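for ur thesis appendix - Malate dehydrogenase. copy paste whatever u need, i formatted it the way the template wanted (i think)
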Amino acid sequence: MADPIRVLVTGAAGQIAYSLLYSIAKGDVFGKDQPIILVLLDIPPMLPVLEGVVMELQDCALPLLKEVIPTDKVEVGFKDLDAAILVGSMPRKEGMERKDLLKANVAIFKTQGAALEKYAKKTVKVLVVGNPANTNCLVASKSAPSIPKENFSCLTRLDHNRATSQVAMRCSVSADKVKNVIIWGNHSSTQYPDVHHAKVNVHGKEVSAFDAVNDDSWLKGDFISTVQLRGAAVIKARKLSSAMSAAKAICDHMRDIWFGTREGEFISMGVYAGGNSYGIPEDLIYSFPIHIKNKSWTVEDGLPINDFSRAKMDATAAELVEERDTALSFLSQ
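the 3d part is after this line
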């Protein structure tokens, strides 16, 4: 049996974590032979709820789960981590300006970045889920200068899975028959779900998504807006934000970091844009098509970009630049 790895989940008493922790603890993410120490961090008022989550994890009687550590202290939460999944953030409240939301989250992710810097392993893999995820991820990374920027990523896999599923349903195939959709940019309503490079396996033959769907106006219209606005649609229906699907996407993202992507396939994740070949401003966390091997990611380079895509990629980059500049002004205060 391997040595246990330490995995932190923040916002651990919340609903995404409730859908996530069982999958991690039973081996769906880091492997069926990888023992785990789960560290659960939340704010002090949530500690009684967290105790209930700990009891349930114990009651699952999972052989890989070696220890569960509930805490509200960063020095406990971030110590010697192998992986950090930062789910907790300040949610947007009614009447709240986006700028106020950014300010509150800059404070949270500055603190957590500093805690990673001080207590975690330098090899830690950090996934930021809490919104605004791209900018929160950038703030955390800047607050942990001795941890490589490449170790930080943000979640756009939920958008990627949504796009994959929409194409699959439209083509009446299962979701595993669709590959290489791309989410470009911000995890917000400006994101660009792009299927120009996607392939669909129809009756054993791989064809382009545009040929398989055979409805360009849908792919350039309702498909894009459906994916962009899906989170809001779930909130409207459930009166709660996406949890089951968000947890599944987190599992997909972390499992791909740990075990790599399939040959000839790429997935979407928000990563540091430095040195990218797509003309995206450098100092951003931006979602690209990504390959992963040996726990290191590379951007899929050289994909042809048409004018339609270029405009949408630039629009979401512009939003990220504005978010970043606002966030950095708070960070320096």
